[in-house]
Amino acid sequence: MNKLIISALLIASSVSYASEKTVQSQEWSANSLRSAIAAKPVGDVSRGAELNTALMCSSCHGKEGVPPTTRWPAVAGQLESYTYKMLLDYKSGARSEDNRANVMTAIADMMSEQDMSDMAAYYASLEAPAHSGKQAPSLVTKGDKERLITPCASCHGLTGQGGIKGTPAISGQSAETIKRALEFYKSGERSSDLYSVMRQASMKLTSSEIDALADYYSGQ
Hints:
The protein is mainly alpha-helical. It has 2 domains: about 90 residues, Cytochrome c-like domain (Cytochrome Bc1 Complex, Chain D, domain 2); about 80 residues, Cytochrome c-like domain (Cytochrome Bc1 Complex, Chain D, domain 2, Orthogonal Bundle), CATH 1.10.760.10.
């Protein structure tokens, strides 16, 4: 893992480094997130493809945004604004839940906002995984009124396509990746979600429900 970071540092001469580190010192509000996305530079898909190789992102996320293992999330077809936000979160240290986050922070720390936008544009241009048509659990379509859990589909979509209220696409992610994210939200180790929506929902889920949601969306 350390070799990955060192190698990325050595070969990233094509990256335009930011003069100052972007810092989000407090949790996102709707206004601060909206302002950050509005200020995002226009992304260059071709340069994003070059950065995907230069920063060795492809070694974990795949050349076409599909990772070779379940250790890393798929990024093909991901919402451009979401990828940009995640890179800002890693750079500021807002995401630091495990060693994967530490690797991402080391890489994002080298990137300017233009680099982040280019990378986000490239991943958004890639074809997202196909849907399989699995039967959706009731938490996806109906939520749970008694526990005040909003239907997952109201934000992420029935097939995990995302884009509703700025939420990420989660279709095609491995079950392990989705389960890991929900567990980190549940424990509070991941806390970069707007208005703590994911934390509030995840803390009410049982282990079997997390498994069922991960299984469903990973098959979409």
